[in-house]
Write a structure and sequence with these properties.
The structure holds 2 protein chains of 2 kinds. Chain A is α/β, with parallel strands linked by helices. Chain A has 10 helices and 10 strands. In chain B, strand 1 and strand 2 form a beta hairpin. Classes of the chains: A alpha/beta, B mainly alpha. Chains A and B meet through helix 2 and helix 3 of A and helix 14 of B.
Chain lengths: 236, 510
């Protein structure tokens, strides 16, 4: 692991209740790249993201962000270090308007105003429906809002969980475009079941299986390794 | 406003329309002046239920805690408000002691925390001995602090402070003795803090940042200094409050009730609820247990008998112009009742309706317009996500718990001149508040308000049914109901609502 890595996860073990979900996950995310976290359903991808942001606390192992150990601290402190979390199922706040959803993500006054140009340029729909409650947006718009929320404060790292889940191909296309443009500004750790989308976007990958990191490398190499793909991801 | 507004609030509006229709239908059976007074009674009860129910609903919505202590806080609010209103000496005697205990407690926890972090693992028996010692010290010091030094010379005097009637007739302890009690309670706080902290599982001890530690210490020092400064002012303070008019004292009682409710709520959340977020069932049990403990504490301080609180002069003036023909003339003559369509209605109950409405609007504005309110609304849906945005959601939990407790305690003070001050008032309010919240939907603020209105109206109409019976067309005599039907009606409505909408009228959670 080189010192340019923004995030390092070192053999973490995480339990949910009494279930041992992560049994030694390691990965590293270089600054300024998109890293994909791949694996079957139940492999532990979402649990890994939650262990990084602090919604779950690993019992063993370390999580380093910018060289600093962050595991064991409460989620709000970890987030405030500059990590944006875009959870699965597009957890936007349904009763809050689009504007309130974005405002809530401010860590300092004026965060939204500072980044409004970028956000509304990426997702013009959000500007149109700024006064609408989050719950009345379409699935794709909610996903955009969830991503936009992570762009409001000054974040160095975005953790994005399954952005394509349940969305139509046309809409996924739009989100891929937006994420690609984002990669120029920030670092992304992306969990994605849609292998095509992940391979389009990511520079490198880690594969989880049964709560362990089983494979890692450059995305360009994985795309040509049909055997590996079918073994761990089950897609042809 | 306009179409978008109508569409967004369609559930609320439709429910309100149905409700208004039902109420009017029932009211139309009575002559207008009877109907008006039933409606006003319903609103009065609804206001009181709302003050308890809003806290229940917000607390459950945000942190999934069923706070059974809401009724206790209502009752304590009534006692504290009454005490300030009628017997301020007791408050002046307690305030420095409470401040001293809190200040000592904060310092004690901080000391214990850093001590436990520094020492390595100790043998279990030693650890236990330290904890037991701290508890013994804490209890001994608080007995001396609260009971007074005359406990030491117990045999010489039979006038022990604890228990019995309020010690109005008792001579004021001298300042020197009282300073001693303040210091005893600071010590008690230190022991309590040490005992509570060392008793915890060592792994769960939170790391604390120096900045926060410093702020806590400053707060503790301020508390203790304030306790010392207030000690010589007790007599003057008491006389000052007694010299005020009943209206001013009443307003002070409302404020003191709400503030002490907020303080108690914050203390309960911090001390009892927060350590148990990992074990939600225990949280419910702890609030339930608190009701019993709290009731006994109130009984030991104020005695088992209740009190009557006078209605302040603002709502209690007689005279030849009374009852006031309308609200405007009431503003100038402050009559005890106001004429509504030829029937006098107590003006104090009008005040309760006004208070309920004002609180509803105030909290609605807080929820809608402030960042705290935004955080609460977001947290009701998904508090983990709020946390992942970098917001310390636990602090919001404390704030909401304190807010809910403050509203309940405010309700207690407001209800005191109307339903009296006794140990039982909290229970009844809690049950009706619960029914209101279940009808309105757990976690929904407008739901709590509408639920409380429904329950209030049901009680008012129920009482009327019991009084007069109903006479259907073609019947010779009216059907008479047993008085319990008024109480049963709210439960029936709840069952009916739950059959149609299992989450309550506006509930989003299951």
């Amino acid at each position: 692991m080189s010192t340019t890595d923004l995030l390092q996860v070192e053999t973490i073990h995480t339990f949910i209740g009494q279930f041992h979900i992560l049994e030694g996950v390691s990965l590293s995310v270089p600054r300024g790249s998109i890293t994909a976290l791949l694996g079957r359903n139940g492999a532990g991808k979402t649990t890994t993201l939650k262990s990084i942001i602090g919604l779950l606390s690993p019992r063993e192992g370390r999580v380093l962000f910018g060289g600093q150990t962050i595991n064991g601290r409460p989620a709000y402190e970890i987030a405030a270090l500059g990590i944006g979390y875009v959870p699965e199922h597009r957890a936007v706040f349904r009763d809050l308007t689009v504007e309130e959803n974005l405002k809530l993500a401010e860590r300092r006054k004026g965060d939204l105003a500072r980044h409004a140009d970028l956000i509304f340029d990426l997702f013009p729909d959000l500007k149109r429906f700024i006064k609408l409650p989050g719950g009345q947006l379409s699935g794709g718009q909610q996903q955009m809002l969830a991503i936009a929320r992570a762009l409001v404060p000054e974040n160095q790292l975005l953790l994005i969980d399954e952005p394509s889940e349940g969305l139509a191909p046309v809409i996924i296309e739009g989100i891929v475009l937006a994420l690609r443009r984002l990669a120029a500004h920030t670092t992304v750790l992306l969990v994605e079941q849609n292998f095509k989308m992940a391979s389009d976007l990511a520079d490198q990958y880690f594969i989880l299986d049964d709560g362990q990191t089983v494979n890692a490398g450059r995305m360009a190499d994985l795309v040509n390794d049909a055997a590996l793909i079918s073994k761990y991801l089950g897609v042809a | 406003m306009t179409v978008a507004f109508l569409r967004r609030n369609q559930t609320v509006l439709v429910t309100l329309a149905i409700l208004a229709g039902l109420v009017l239908l029932m009211a139309s059976r009575y002559p207008p002046r009877v109907a008006a007074s039933i409606l006003l009674s319903g609103l009065t009860l609804g206001s009181l239920y709302f003050l308890v129910a809003s806290g229940l609903s917000l607390i459950f919505g945000l942190m999934d805690v069923l706070n059974f202590a809401q009724g206790l806080l209502f009752m304590m609010g009534a006692y504290i408000g009454y005490t300030l209103y009628a017997n301020p000496r007791m408050l002046w005697n307690t305030l420095p002691l409470a401040l001293a205990l809190m200040g000592g407690g904060i310092i004690g926890t901080a000391l214990a925390r850093s001590a436990w972090q520094r020492t390595g693992a100790l043998a279990l028996s030693i650890e236990r001995a330290i904890v037991t010692g701290a508890w013994i010290g804490a209890i001994a010091c608080s007995i001396i602090g609260f009971g007074g030094f005359d406990l030491i010379a117990l045999a010489s005097s039979s006038a022990v402070v604890a228990g019995g009637a309020i010690p109005t007739a008792q001579a004021q302890a001298s300042d020197a003795v009282f300073f001693g009690r303040v210091i005893a309670l600071v010590l008690a706080g230190l022991f309590f803090g040490a005992a509570i902290y060392s008793g915890r599982d060592r792994h769960t001890i939170e790391r604390s940042r120096p900045q926060r530690q410093r702020r806590n210490l400053i707060l503790a020092v301020v508390f203790i200094l304030l306790a010392l400064a207030l000690t010589p002012l007790r007599l003057a303070g008491e006389q000052f409050i007694l010299s005020l008019s009943s209206d001013v004292r009443f307003i002070l009682a409302l404020i003191a009730g709400a503030l002490s409710g907020a303080a108690l709520g914050a203390l309960i959340e911090w001390g009892l609820i927060r350590p148990l977020y990992a074990r939600p069932i225990y949280q419910v049990l702890v609030t339930l247990g608190l009701v019993y403990v709290g009731t006994e504490v109130v009984k030991s301080i104020w005695g088992p008998a209740g009190f009557y609180m006078d209605i302040p002069a603002l709502f209690n003036t007689g005279g030849e112009n009374c009852p006031s023909p309308d609200l405007i003339s009431w503003l100038s003559n402050h009559c005890a009742s106001i004429d509504v369509l030829g029937r006098p209605f107590p003006s104090y109950r009008m005040f309760i309706i006004f208070l309920g409405g004002a609180v509803f609007i105030g909290v609605a504005i807080l929820l809608k317009r402030t960042r705290l309110g935004m955080t609460i609304r977001a947290g009701v849906q998904d508090s983990d996500m709020v946390q992942a945005l970098g917001i310390n959601v636990r602090r919001v939990f404390t704030a909401v718990f304190a807010l809910g407790a403050a509203l309940a305690a405010l309700g207690g003070v407001a209800a005191a001149p109307f339903i009296g001050v006794n140990l039982g008032i909290g229970q009844e309010l809690l049950i009706q508040g619960f029914i209101a919240v279940v009808i309105g939907g757990m976690g929904s603020y407008p739901g709590a308000a509408i639920g409380a209105l429904i329950v209030g109206m049901a009680r008012a109409f129920g009482d009327q049914f019991v009084l007069a019976g109903i006479q259907l067309p073609g019947m010779e005599t009216a059907i008479k109901f047993s008085p319990s039907i008024a109480r049963a009606s709210t439960v029936l409505i709840m069952a009916l609502v739950l059959l149609i909408r299992p989450t309550g009228l506006f509930g989003k959670k299951d």
